[in-house]
Structures are given as structure tokens and as C-alpha cells.
Amino acid sequence: MKKALLTIGMVLSLAEASVTIPHKAKEIAVTVYNNNLAFVHEKREVRVKKGLQTLVCEGVASQVITPSVVPQFSGADVRLYSQNFRYNLITLDSLLKNSIGRKVSFYTNGEKPKLEKGTLLSSAPVVVKSAHDGKIYALEAPTQVIFPGIPPAMITRPSLVWRAEIAADAKLGIDLKYLSRGIKWKSDYVLDLKEKTLDLHGWITIENNSGATYENAQIRCIAGELHEARAPVQYRNLKTMAMPAPAAVHEESFSGYHLYKIPFRETLRDKEQKQILFIDKKGIGYRQYGKAVNSYFENYGVRKLSFANIVTFDNTKANHAGIPLPAGVVRMYQKDSAGETHYIGEDRLSNTPEGERVKLTVGTLFDVTGEKRVTRFVSDKYHREVETAYEIRNLGKKPIDVKIEERIPSYGTKITLHSSCKKGCKEVKKSAFVREFTIHLPAKGRYDFTTSFEVVY
User: Fold this and answer.
1) Which of 21, 119, 179, 296 minimizes the number of CB atoms within 10 Å of its CB?
2) What is the pLDDT of residues 219-232, one digit of tens each?
């Protein structure tokens, strides 16, 4: 039995041919996730002969996750024996290391170098043994070595190598699916703030460091937190994804995520960052106000108030928006009275579904100031009573709404709240220990009011 197995192996080895599958794919689609992961689906074709073949699929990502590779063949029956991933790429240094012990040609040192043959003994430093006189030479530069060919273990591109038996001569179709690290995407937004409305532009930014270039690819981006243990399952359902119409970037809900399909093909080159416009919304209504938070109620005298400059809008179709917004940085711009555009700040947007309210912090309001002072403070082990006086001023030339959120840091069996918030002021209880006051401040206006709370422990 052992002898028979050896004979079969020898016959297969002698009959085996090597076929390189063209690097250019017939079809290619790349789905990019938020967590430096991409799913690649490509289709290639190659002419093959009947018998045992070594199929070399060049140009796959150097960061391919090999357990995720799924090759499927059509056009002939194929029996797949093994799969290897070769990524020992050719460089001068790697050629030297992989040629140790092999026959090479080399130029001798000196002003009049001679071309000789020998055996490479070392790569650093480069040492060869001359076949002419048996002497050992330490060469001054590695470029003095001439290699007779590419060592068997080396390749010019990262490649998947399949050992397979083909049932007949055929044009073999290869449907290849795999996951790769080194590709990521993010959202970047530009917000143009106008007098009563704003324009929102969103860019998909894709960065490819996977080690492969994807020519004329159909690109899809998925927004959401992917659980990677499920990733190998996701690509098996790719055939259910319909091709988008040639219009704006198409968005759809997909398996708990949001899928964005680019309606045109693009080439994703290795070591390249590409931006694609996917949101272009104009005339979105918004509100702008200042906000301060008070969570300090100790008996400490007067403290300054600082008001954040907040821009908020409803992400609804009725408000000329209404699209799921993946997380990203929003950079905000506004024109001055002369029509010149200026950068006014930026904020980070979290994943925001359609119908939710977007709230962005532009910066700190310059012309809105104020103070708070604790005017009554009683505290013992049975209860706590605090009264706070607020003075808020708008020194600007335009009216503005400001909000003060009180976060009462006390818990007990009973809480009693009071305030003098009346005309020009609105009070909203957000929870048992959080309340918010909204005050309309006219230009050069001022508003004073007091709040108090008593907690019984």
C-alpha cells in the first residue's frame, strides 16, 4: 500500500502544470466595514487543461484573512486538494536571502570588475564562492549579484495558490470571496450654516492599505458596529444585494446595519485614500442656542457660567434631511456679512438614524456670559437645602435662546423643587434630578432668576 501511494504521488507530481490566473478580474465588488475590514468578491476566468493543476491567483490582498477564503469554480468539475497563501514578495534583500546556496553570477570588486559564476553563501554581507578558482569573495554591494531566475518560493504579487485536478479542458470560471484587513472607511461632513437653514454634505472616505488594487470595483460601505465572529456568514448572502441604480448613493437597512451602495464603479488603489460624495442635502431647518450645565451646588460664592454654542436639527424628510447618518466628523462653515466663508468649528457625530435629532457643538458663545451664586445653603445628615441665583447677559447684537441644565447631585426619600422662572423663561423637568431652563435673551438683554431644591434623606 505504501509503495502504491508513493507511485501515485510521483505520477501526479510529474503530470502537474502551473497556470497563472489573470490579475484583472472580470467582476469585482468590495464591501468596506468601519473596523478596518473589507469583504472582497471577484470573478476571474482562465483557460486550463485537463489534469492536475497548480492555479496561481495573483494580486489578492496581502492582508487577506486566509480562513475566510471561499473559491468556487465553474466550467469544469474541479477537485481541490490544497490552498496556500504566498506573500514572499520579490525585493533585492529577499532575493538574496532566498538564493543562499544557489548558483549566481556576480561582478568582482575593483575598478575593472569581471563577471564570474559562483554560489551565494551569505546575504549580509554578500559572500559568494567562485566557481572559477574556489575563492570566497565578500562583495562591496548586493547589486553585484545577478540572479539566474526567481526562486520557487517567491512571487511578484501576493497570491493564493490552489492545487486542483481539472476534469476537462475548459475556460474555468473562478468565483472568489475573502475578507481582508487594511481597508477602512469613515464619514466626513461639511455643514454650511446660513441665516435660517443649513446645507449638509457627506463624504465617504475610503483608505486602502490592504496590499491590493481593486480595478473598476463596485463599492459598498456598511455603517454599524460589526461583530466579527459573524463576518464569514455575512458574505454568503451577498447575492441578495441588488445593484444600485445610476443615481445618488443608495442607502438601505441591511441585517441590523445600514448599507451604502456607490452607484458607479471606482478603482481602489493600494496606498490610496478616496472620497465619494454620498449626502447632499440643502435647506435643512435648524435651531441655535447656548447651553450651560450646573452640577455644582456647594457653598462657594460666585462662579462664572460658560455657554456652548449648539446647532440642532431634526433628521427627517419633512426637514429636507431624513437619511441615516453614519458616525463621523462634522466641519462647520459660515459666511460673514461680506460673503466670505469661514471655518467656525467641528464636532463628532455618532451613528444617527432617520428621525433622530442631531445636536452639534460649534464652540463657546463669546457674547453670552453669566454668573451663579449659592445664596442659601443648609445641610445636615437629615436634609439638604440649596438656593442658587443666576444672572445671564447677552452682550451681542442679536437675540438668542440659552439653556441652563441643573443636575442635582442629591438622592433621598423626598425632593422639593422651586424656581422663579416665569416670563421669558421656560422650565422642563427632564428627570427626577435634572431640570432645564430655557431663557430668551434679546440683544443687549439680561435675565435674573433663582432656583432651589430641598432633599430629605
Assistant:
1) 296
2) 999 887 665 544 44
